[in-house]
Design a protein that fits this description.
Helix 2 packs across helix 3 (50-57). The termini are far apart. The chain folds into two domains: 6-143 and 203-240, Vaccinia Virus protein VP39 (Rossmann fold, 3-Layer(aba) Sandwich); 152-200, N-terminal domain of TfIIb, CATH 2.20.25.110. Helix content is 29%, strand content 37%. By secondary structure, it is of the alpha/beta class. A hairpin with a 2-residue loop joins strand 8 and strand 9. It has helices spanning 6-16, 18-33, 50-57, 69-78, 117-130, 205-215; strands at 40-44, 61-66, 83-86, 97-102, 131-142, 152-158, 162-171, 176-187, 190-201, 218-222, 224-225, 228-229, 234-240. The longest helix is centred in the N-terminal third of the chain and has 16 residues, at 18-33. It has a seven-stranded mixed β-sheet with strand order 3-2-1-4-5-13-10, with helices on both faces. A four-stranded antiparallel β-sheet has the order 6-7-8-9.
């Protein structure tokens, strides 16, 4: 399961890229506050490259990694100044870098079926080892309680040449969220339909903080990127590798 087929990737970029755009100023401020004003930033789950583009504009070098080939194709067109690679964040080679980011709940997705708490522990260690002393790892993730008053939610969104229907169900026992998406993208005078299912593993904040601190990170949690507030039951963690 690779996720984000051609039409869904297009819709995500066209209709839901505002998250990365609004998060960018706060993320850049966090990097600057940590005296990270240049160097390589590894953008995991880079999607169509919206955040990568802001990093390039700010003077950073960027390596974007995403498991979706379609997303990587979009990112290469959007940000020719960055480097991009198709890979799972659980196994991708992370080079020595100043910072690592993973925004948009990318650690929750199970496109790579190995994703679980043990795999994340190994992933966090690889990020720690790749960061230079004083480097920062910033990511956000979905917590249990995504659907607070029921176990199911149905919503829809509409754009000038697309539409998407979402049917989401949360299993509060297994801490998983299943998103069934039906998308329609205009092709000439007709619309093409695509169905895709994403399974999301939900993580408690205290559990991930404990894993990060065991590895050696200093952490703080937040529900904002700068002035942008994350949606309910979503947390951001700013994890710093201590100076030598």
């Amino acid at each position: 399961m690779t996720g984000y087929s051609e039409d869904l990737a297009y819709i995500h970029d066209a209709g839901f890229g505002d998250f990365a755009r609004r998060a960018a100023p706060g993320l850049l401020s966090a990097l600057h506050a940590q005296s990270i004003v240049s160097g390589l930033v590894v953008d995991l789950g880079c999607g169509s490259g919206i955040w990568a583009a802001r990093l390039i504009e700010a003077g950073y070098d960027v390596l974007g990694i995403d498991i979706s080939r379609t997303m990587i194709r979009l990112a290469k067109k959007k940000v020719p100044g960055a480097k991009f690679r198709v890979a799972s964040l659980l196994s991708a080679d992370i080079p020595a870098c100043a910072a690592v980011t993973a925004i948009g709940e990318v650690i929750n997705y199970t496109f790579d079926p190995r994703n679980n708490r043990r795999a994340l522990r190994t992933f966090f260690r690889r990020v720690f080892d790749a960061l230079r002393p004083g480097g920062m790892f910033v990511f956000d993730f979905a917590n249990p309680g995504q659907i607070s008053r029921a176990s199911r939610r149905r919503i829809w969104s509409l754009g000038p040449d697309w539409a998407i229907l979402l049917d989401a169900a949360e299993d509060k026992r297994t801490h998983t969220l299943v998103r069934n998406m039906t998308s329609f993208r205009k092709q000439g005078k007709l619309y093409r339909r695509t169905d895709e299912t994403h399974v999301v593993r939900l993580y408690r904040t205290d559990v991930l903080v404990r894993e990060l601190r065991r590895i050696g990170f200093r952490t703080r949690t937040s529900h904002t990127y700068g002035t942008m507030r994350l949606r309910a039951a979503t947390t951001a963690i700013y994890a710093v590798k201590p100076e030598l």
